[in-house]
Specification:
Oligomer: single chain
Distance between the termini: 21 Å
Structural class: alpha/beta
Helix content: 25-40%
CATH class of one domain: Alpha Beta
Shape: globular
Largest sheet: 8 strands, parallel
Strand order of the largest sheet: 1-10-9-8-7-4-3-2
Strand content: 5-15%
C-alpha cells in the first residue's frame, strides 16, 4: 500500500499508537513516534497503565518471560496499595543493562501492536537517526509486532536496511554510533536477539524503509549507497515542517539553496511525499502535480482530538490558531541535537526566556546525550542542556549551552507525561491555516476522520 497521506511521527508521544491506529483505519499511513518509547512505557506502567492497553499488548509478546520481567520492574498497580514508587527507565549507554534492552524491545513492540490492533492497514514507526543507541533494540521490538514501514530523519540513516536484514535472518545486528574523540570515532552497538531471548525469533517481514530528507543531494546519496530495493520511497521535509529541520545550507538563513528540485526527485522513480505546510487539499493536489505520491502532514494531526498532546495545550493551540494569534519560530539553538527546531510561542512554556532561565538545569532523561572520548580512552556522555559546569568539565564548549532547552523533559510535559515542575516545549509547523476549515469557533475541535476528509476534499 502506498497511501497519499503520511501522518508525521511527531514529538514525544504526540504521535501515539492510538493516533496512528485511527489514521491507518481511515486509509492514510499512521505513524508512531519512536522517540524514547522505553521511557514512556516505564512512566505509563508506573502510573497504573490506565485502561490496561499496554499490558494487553504485552500479553501477546512472543517471549512472555521477558514481558513479565518488564512488568515486574516497572508496573505499579493503579491506586498503588503497597505504596510502591514509580521507577523511570535507566539511561542508554554503550553497555545497556538487560532490563533496559527488554524494556526498549517491549515498548516498541507494544507501540506497534496497539497501532495495528483491530485493522489490517499498514503502520509506520518513526525514529531519529540522532538517537542511535537504542536503534537495534527498538527496531527488533517493532519488527516483532509486524511494523510495515520505518521512517527516519535527523541524520543520514544508511544502516537501517542492514539492521532489518540481520534481524530477519537471525544474525547479530550492529549499528555504528558516532563518538566525538581523537582516537575513537564510532562505537559499534551489537545485539543478538536469539541469544538474548534464548530462542529463535518467529518469522518476520522486512519493513519498508522511507528516509526523511531535505535535499536532492541526500536523495542521491541514498540511491548511490543503498540497493534500490532497500528504499521504499522518500519523505521530503521543507523548512516549514515542525520538529527538527535540516540546517540551512548557506548563511544561517533558509534560501534558494534549500529548495528541492522535485522534477529530479521524480526521476529517481521512487514514491515520495512532501512535508511542511502541505496540510490542505490544494497542497495535496500541487504535490501530485510535481510527481509526488502525496504529502506528509503533522500539525493537523497533532491538534486532532486523538493526539497525545496535553488536552489544555491542544485546545490553546487551536484557539490561538483560529484567532490568528499563533506564532512559531525556527530556533537555531533550542535543541541539544544542534538541528534547528520549531518552537511555538506559548506563555509558561520554554519558548519564554524567563521560563527557560528559571529552570534548574539537570539531565534526568538522557535521550539526547552524545558520546565523547574521555582522556582515559573510555566513552562518556554529555548534553548541552545539562548543568553548564558539568558539560564544560566533560570537554564541551560553554557557547554550545547558550539558549539550549531540555527538550526531553519539555516534550514529555507537552504529552502530559512530564514531572510536575517541568515546563512544556511545543513544536508545530509554520502553517496551521487548516484550522479555519475544520473549526467554526475558537473552542471548537475536530478528529482524525474530519482532518482526512478535509485533506481529500
Amino acid at each position: 500500500m502506498t497511501p497519499e497521506i503520511i501522518q508525521g511521527g511527531m514529538g514525544v508521544y504526540i504521535s501515539t499508537p492510538f493516533l496512528a491506529n485511527t489514521v491507518s483505519r481511515n486509509g492514510a499511513l499512521g505513524t508512531v513516534s519512536g522517540v524514547a518509547p522505553e521511557r514512556i512505557l516505564a512512566r505509563i506502567l508506573g502510573k497504573g497503565d490506565v485502561g490496561g492497553h499496554y499490558r494487553r499488548a504485552l500479553s501477546h509478546f512472543p517471549f512472555p518471560k521477558v514481558a513479565q520481567q518488564v512488568l515486574d520492574a516497572f508496573y505499579v498497580e493503579e491506586g498503588n496499595p503497597k505504596g510502591r514508587q514509580r521507577k523511570d527507565a535507566p539511561f542508554f549507554t554503550v553497555h545497556p543493562p538487560e532490563i533496559l534492552i527488554a524494556l526498549c524491545i517491549c515498548a516498541n513492540y507494544a507501540f506497534v501492536y496497539l497501532a495495528k490492533e483491530g485493522h489490517e492497514n499498514p503502520v509506520s514507526m518513526n525514529y531519529l537517526e540522532k538517537i542511535s543507541l537504542p536503534h537495534i533494540y527498538a527496531i527488533t521490538g517493532a519488527m516483532l509486532a509486524g511494523v510495515d514501514f520505518i521512517t527516519m530523519g535527523a541524520g543520514i540513516p544508511l544502516q537501517i536496511p542492514e539492521v532489518t536484514d540481520a534481524i530477519i535472518k537471525g544474525r547479530t545486528a550492529s549499528y555504528d554510533v558516532p563518538v566525538t574523540g581523537t582516537n575513537i570515532h564510532i562505537h559499534v552497538m551489537s545485539f543478538d536477539p536469539e541469544k538474548f531471548f534464548g530462542a529463535k525469533l518467529p518469522p518476520l517481514k522486512k519493513p519498508g524503509f522511507i528516509p526523511i530528507i531535505a535535499s536532492n543531494l541526500l536523495a542521491t546519496i541514498f540511491m548511490k549507497k543503498l540497493p534500490r530495493e532497500n528504499i521504499h520511497g522518500f519523505v521530503i521535509e521543507e523548512p516549514t515542517a515542525g520538529g527538527h529541520n535540516a540546517p540551512p545550507r548557506k548563511g544561517g538563513v533558509y534560501g534558494p539553496k534549500d529548495d528541492v528540485d522535485y522534477g529530479k526527485i521524480a526521476e529517481l522513480g521512487l514514491p515520495f511525499w512532501i512535508g511542511g505546510s502541505k496540510a490542505s487539499p490544494e497542497k495535496l493536489k500541487w504535490a501530485r502535480s510535481v510527481g509526488a505520491t502525496g504529502i506528509q502532514a503533522g500539525s493537523i494531526f497533532a491538534l486532532a482530538e486523538e493526539s497525545g498532546m496535553d488536552p489544555w495545550i491542544r485546545r490553546e493551540m487551536r484557539r490561538l490558531g483560529f484567532e490568528g494569534k499563533f506564532e512559531v519560530r525556527t530556533d537555531m539553538t533550542a535543541s541539544p541535537t544542534g538541528f534547528p527546531f520549531k518552537v511555538v510561542i506559548l506563555p509558561g512554556s520554554l519558548s519564554e526566556e524567563a521560563v527557560l532561565l528559571s529552570r534548574n538545569r539537570l539531565c534526568n532523561q538522557g535521550a539526547l546525550r552524545t558520546l565523547f572520548e574521555e582522556p582515559d580512552g573510555s566513552i562518556g556522555y554529555r548534553c548541552p542542556a545539562e548543568p553548564i559546569a558539568r558539560y564544560v568539565a566533560k570537554g564541551g564548549k560553554i557557547e554550545e549551552t547558550k539558549g539550549v532547552c531540555c527538550i526531553c523533559n519539555g516534550l514529555l510535559s507537552t504529552a502530559g507525561l512530564g514531572d510536575g515542575d517541568e515546563a512544556p516545549i511545543i513544536t508545530m509547523g509554520d502553517d496551521i491555516g487548516f484550522l479555519s476549515s475544520l473549526m467554526s469557533h475558537p473552542d471548537d475541535s475536530y478528529g482524525v476522520a474530519e482532518a482526512l476528509t478535509y485533506l481529500r476534499s
